[in-house]
Amino acid sequence: MATPRAFVSFDFDHDENSRMLFVGQGKKDSPTPFEVHDWSSKSVLPQAQWESLISTKINSCHMVIVLVGRSMGSASGVAKEIQFARDNNVPVFGVYVDGAGAGSTLPTGLARGRVVTWTWPTVANAIKQMMGEGKNR
Asked: Which pTM does this prediction carry?
């Protein structure tokens, strides 16, 4: 499998710690069967600058991984990132973090059937699936 580049989408106000853990554990030297390149924005930017930068980054990735936390309903930027992915035929899936689960609110554009629990085998299977979808075909 090609080394996937993933844009990691997350609730900047509530799930930064989960993002750091997810990306850190997915590094090349970890026991995971893949490498995640985190191209997400690490700082708050003016809206127009953020939209241009994020759309370009998402288009340069193989997939978007949405970290679905308990406060996802208030994360409007995540819904925009999902839309940028759809606009660029970039496949998207979600991973439950921070105690979120099947009853948690999902961001607009992310289907419940596209969200998995955070176990590395489950995430690896989702990544393999994404590498055969959308612009990765």
From this structure: 0.90
